[in-house]
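Database export, one record per block. Field names are fixed; values are copied verbatim from the stored entry.
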Amino acid sequence: MNCTRNNSLQMYKKNQYSMNTTRLNLSKLALFGLFAGVIMTSCNSPKKMSAALEKVKFKAEPEVLEVKGDSITVKITGKFPPRTFAKNASVKFQPILRYGTQEKPLPPKYLVGEKVTGVAGATKISYKQGGGFSYYQRVEYTPDMKKSMLTLDYTIKFVSKYEELDQCVSGSKKDSLFGTITTALTVAPTDDLYYYDNTTPVGGARRVIFYYVINEGFLRDSVFIGPAARLLDSIVSNPKFRITNITLHSYASPDGELKRNLELTHERAESGYKEVKEILEKEHVSIVKDEDIFKKPDENGDDWVGLKRIMSASNMNGKDDVLAIVNNNMSFDEKNAALKKLPSWDDLKDNYLPRLRRTEVYLEGVFPNREITEIRSIASTSFDGLTKKEVIEYANSATDNASKEKAYKYLMTKYPDDWAGENNYAAILLKEGNYKDADSFLTMAHKTWPNNDTIASNLGVADRELHKYDDAKALYGEAAAKNMKESNNLGILYIKYGDYDNAVASFDSKQCDYNVALAYTMKNDYDNALSKIDCITDKTPQVYYLRAIVAARKGDVDLMTTSLTLAVKGDASYRDQAKTDLEFKKYWNKVEFQNAIK
């Protein structure tokens, strides 16, 4: 049977259902009493109907809606005293959110008397004892909800006849303007963006490896004139390469007795150190005498870690058997014996273990760039005359985004196997607010370089701006696991979640900025919010406006008016914003407020 909305009670003949639909204003405490009077067991007099209205307690919370995270929450509670809800009454009520020209019905709530069955999900109300009910619904916020009305449409149906229904009176009340507080949405875009910048040396380090024959600790003559020695010579003789540190690490393959391998490691360390020293002296590199830079070698013994690494990356038949032995808790000698019993031993011995008999030489340093004026002069014609690091230095020193983007696009084309260009270009897009394109670039970059913490962090920022909060949280966690500092980004993300406790906990305790103050404001910790605002050294109009909101919530009229005055003085748009901002609703008609926004 269909039910229609109207302002008068629809009456039907004997043995038919009786029903009525109307609309309720939710801003009054006893609002629900209207239909309570209609569904009384007997409603044969206006006096009884009025008495029931006074008894029923009904509440919508909050009276003014407020955004939390990116949503608003509608909560309605009601309580029927004893002997007010008819045993054979069935009530369907449905909150409706109205904003602009749109009408958004929320999921309905059903209440039934004791004799009513077959209504799924309904809350049963006892006639003798009365009873309560609650309604909770979260709604994704859109900007046109800032001015909104929340109303209640209800339908009452009786499952038995009433001769005296024609004596009952139905009515309707005007909708109440609620509106929405949107302070939580004012998050400032102060996410930490990470660049590959010119402070990172190109290459960072160079590695040269000297290999040894099985059971030998000395370098053969062929090594002295081989590719490793020639590479080392070319590195240390490069006048542009300023060496800052040299370290050596010597190893033995894990296929001999532990004691003998320790002896071999010592011999290899000595021979490797001697060879590097001779090459440094030949090229007249003065650091050869500086033990803080040219360090004595490490003697690492059996390289089980190295064996695990090369096996994991190999396609060797039987590699799983090898890895099982490597990961076992047996002693090294027991592992050695177990390896030699494997069917794949010959392949392992001939093609993999020789790579582990070595001394690695790491040379750290920088290639000094040309002066920035020279770099800019060359770049004005072509980037081809610059090193990769110099192109990055040019881009990072540019004052306009167009020059930065041009340089980063060149890096992407010139060095497609390097992540710097894609990451830095995407970071510029993020600063420009082009989150969708930045997200596309960074998503592809993350697939190409899945272990890159910088790309992961920046992709998290893009995803956060596109409301992909769970993805952003996972990416921040990935970056933090690689020691990237994500406290600020996580704090901002938690504000967007509406989780203000975790937002405050995530921010650095010494951090003073708008978002930290906002997080404290939203968790109703106004003293700490003001403390964080006070320690901001360069206060913007936005900061002053937030301070006015905090003061308004605390009831501090003097601080509110002072802060509003400064906000409007710095940005006149806050004048009109304050006039409709429900944060200041109770002050709109006060002289102090009017003077503050003049």
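Remark 1: The two ends are 58 Å apart (CA to CA).
Remark 2: The chain has a mean pLDDT of 82.
End of record.
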